[in-house]
Specification:
Number of helices: 10
Order of helices and strands: HHHHHHHHHH
Structural class: mainly alpha
Radius of gyration: 25 Å
Length: 271
């Protein structure tokens, strides 16, 4: 108890903003005056602190409402993120099935439905190795975004993703599939990172969290549908899964070209 009491005077106070939104206007005003005193700044004697009340502030209506300038980027980024998370999870499910079924260079078709089959140690190494492509893609996105901006690299990587998926139509062996899958992992992670660079630079503070939640939710839906798509189509025809990959990649590519605002070095809007 004595230790707690001894440390209590050193505990920092709450921020004026937190106090204000909590309805503690007097405490918020005292906190503002204390900050001004510590920074040797002067404040008006009649200064008042109050919380701006607006039930629509940060609502979906402000993003998707008629005439909203933020509707287009919010919808396009949601579709792009949906498609890329769809691809990410679908590839994770597709690769083990492809290795088991000898999709590349083998004579057998899809594995038996609802029957677990073991992966060889070689296949496990390939799956683990391809996963490191995501890390490489994230790192590359950081440096490329700083040098070339957001839009051009995003558009170029989307085109490259379509081409890379097209290489799966002619699959020679498992090593070839591993190489193509690794490149896809790099590109997919690169695009996802670019999307996350664009999101906070596209929306003002008052709707940024709502827009981010909306876009992130679309990704969650993409993850569920991507997994289901592979299981639904692979046992009928593995090639159908590859066709789906190409179509989804084409959709996100089109959306990237519909985004017209380069957000690099644009000052973040606070209101």
């Amino acid at each position: 108890s004595s230790g707690i009491n001894a440390e209590w005077p050193l505990r920092p106070g709450e921020t004026p903003r937190y106090l204000c939104v909590s309805g503690k206007n007097e405490a918020a005003l005292k906190a503002v005056r204390l900050m001004a005193k510590l920074n040797k700044a002067s404040l008006p004697e009649n200064l008042e602190v109050f919380c701006h009340q607006n039930k629509q502030l940060g609502s979906f209506k402000m993003i998707l409402g008629s005439g909203s300038e933020h509707r287009k980027p919010a919808v396009l980024l949601s579709i792009m993120y949906f498609c890329n998370i769809f691809i990410e999870t679908a590839v994770l499910v597709f690769l083990p099935l492809a290795f088991i079924s000898q999709f590349c260079g083998g004579e057998s078709g899809a594995p038996e439905r609802d029957r677990c089959q073991p992966l060889s140690q070689s296949d496990l190494w390939k799956l683990s190795g391809s996963a490191f492509g995501s890390l490489a893609g994230c790192m590359a996105a950081y440096f490329v975004a700083k040098c070339l901006g957001r839009l051009k690299p995003t558009r170029g990587s989307n085109i490259l993703q379509i081409i890379t998926f097209g290489l799966m139509f002619k699959c020679f062996n498992d090593t070839y599939l591993f190489g193509v899958a690794t490149v896809i992992k790099i590109i997919n992670a690169f695009i996802c990172m670019m999307i996350w660079f664009i999101i906070p630079e596209s929306f003002p503070t008052m709707i940024r969290n709502t827009a981010t939640g909306m876009i992130n939710s679309s990704g969650k839906l993409g993850a569920v549908l991507g997994t289901a798509m592979v299981y639904l189509l692979f046992y009928a025809s593995p090639v159908a899964v590859v066709i789906c990959f190409v179509v989804i990649s084409a959709i996100t590519c089109i959306c990237s070209f519909l985004l017209t605002k380069e957000t690099q070095d644009v000052a973040l809007m606070d209101t």
